[in-house]
């Protein structure tokens, strides 16, 4: 039976998540309402299969990377308010197994927890198709961890020189990473980072093979 730790969410979301997990006989909620400061001790204590993170309480997306590196055996599911494809891609590149909108249907959130506990990934797709669609995606569409770090700094408005200094890499390397990021996200410039279309998820396995329907 997969075990779950849930961090602190808005009251209605927290109540809904607790009810959803409690009503599923095949899931066990071992801790809820955990603050981000206390999430790592909670993982160390309970050793959950899945931890639910509130995107809105993250001080920086880098916290997901730190948590993943410290506890690679625990799958991370991030819930956000209508996340963009860039935000989802960044979360997945930092080690999250899933990135979902808080508006996702209840049954799909439960399904996502089960899938995450088995190591399957939820990736962004056009909002024109709703729900959790079972499909494949090219592995190259995911940002590398370094590209995700560059993306975070680009979103903060850092210049190429500032990014190079922060990450201890060359400016030309920054430019190369930026080109890869824009290509993978299907955009042409920094300005378009703020205009990315809203996304819904699709499900693929760790090897990016299509799942059977």
Question: Can you put this structure into words, describing what you see?
Answer:
The protein is of the alpha/beta class and 213 residues long. It has two domains: 144 residues, Rossmann fold (3-Layer(aba) Sandwich), CATH 3.40.50.2300; 56 residues, Arc Repressor Mutant, subunit A (Orthogonal Bundle), CATH 1.10.10.10. It has eight helices and eight strands; from the N terminus they run βαβαβαβαβαββαααβ. The strands form two sheets. The chain has a five-stranded parallel beta sheet, sandwiched between helices. It has a three-stranded mixed beta sheet with strand order 6-8-7. α6 packs across α8 and α7 crosses α8.
What's the quick description here?
The chain is of the alpha/beta class.
Write the topology of this structure.
Elements: E1 3-7, H1 11-23, E2 28-34, H2 39-46, E3 50-54, H3 62-70, E4 75-80, H4 85-93, E5 98-101, H5 106-117, E6 121-126, E7 133-134, H6 145-155, H7 160-167, H8 171-185, E8 199-204
Parallel strand pairs: 1-2, 1-3, 3-4, 4-5, 7-8
Antiparallel strand pairs: 6-8
């Amino acid at each position: 039976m997969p075990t779950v730790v849930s961090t602190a969410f808005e009251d209605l979301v927290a109540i809904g998540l607790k009810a959803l997990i409690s009503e599923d006989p095949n899931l066990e909620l071992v801790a809820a309402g955990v603050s981000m400061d206390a999430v790592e001790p909670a993982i160390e204590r309970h050793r959950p299969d899945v931890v639910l993170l509130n995107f809105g309480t993250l001080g920086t997306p880098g916290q997901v990377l730190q948590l993943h590196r410290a506890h690679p055996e625990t799958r991370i599911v991030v819930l956000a308010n209508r996340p963009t494809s860039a935000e989802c891609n960044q979360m997945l590149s930092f080690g999250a197994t899933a990135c979902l909108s808080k508006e996702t249907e209840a049954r799909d959130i439960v399904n996502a927890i089960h899938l995450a506990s088995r190591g399957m990934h939820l990736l962004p797709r056009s909002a024109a198709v709703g729900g959790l669609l079972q499909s494949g995606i090219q592995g190259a569409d995911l940002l590398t961890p370094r590209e995700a770090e560059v993306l975070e700094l680009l979103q903060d408005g850092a210049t190429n020189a500032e990014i190079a200094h922060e990450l201890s890499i060359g400016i030309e390397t920054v430019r190369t990473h930026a080109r890869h990021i824009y290509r993978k996200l299907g955009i042409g410039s920094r300005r378009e980072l703020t205009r990315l279309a809203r996304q819904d998820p699709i499900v693929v396995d760790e090897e990016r093979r299509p799942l059977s329907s």
